[in-house]
Amino acid sequence: MAYTVTTQTPASRIAAILGALAIVVLVALPFFAGRGTIQDMFFILTMLVLAQFWNLLAGYGGLVSIGQQAFVGVGAYALFGTVILWGLDPVPSILLAGVAALVIAVPTAFFAFRLNGAYFAIGTWVIAEVVRLLVAQWKTLGGGTGTSLPRDATRDMWFVEIIEETLGVRSAAARDILAYWLALILALATIGGVYWLLRTRRGLALAAVRDNTEAAKSVGVDAGRMKWIVFLTSAFGTGLAGGLIYMQKARISPDAAFSVTDWTAYVIFIVVIGGIGTVEGPIIGVLVFFALQSLLADFGSWYLMTLGVLAIVIMLVAPRGLWGLLSERTGLHLFPIRRRLTGGKLTASEE
Amino acid sequence: MSILSLKNVSKSFGALTVTDDASFDVPQGQALGIIGPNGAGKSTLFNLITGNIRSDQGNIHFQGRDVTKVSAMERCLTGIGRSFQIPQPFEKLTVYENLLVAATHGRNLSERDVRDDCADVLERTELIKRANVPAGQLSLLERKRLELSRAMATQPKLLLLDEIAGGLTEGECQALIRTIQDIHAQGVTIIWIEHVLHALTSVVERLLVLDFGKVIGLGDPDEIMASKEVQEIYLGIEV
Ligand SMILES: Nc1ncnc2c1ncn2[C@@H]1O[C@H](COP(=O)(O)OP(=O)(O)O)[C@@H](O)[C@H]1O
Ligand SMILES: [Mg+2]
Question: pTM higher than 0.95, yes or no?
Answer without folding.
Answer: no
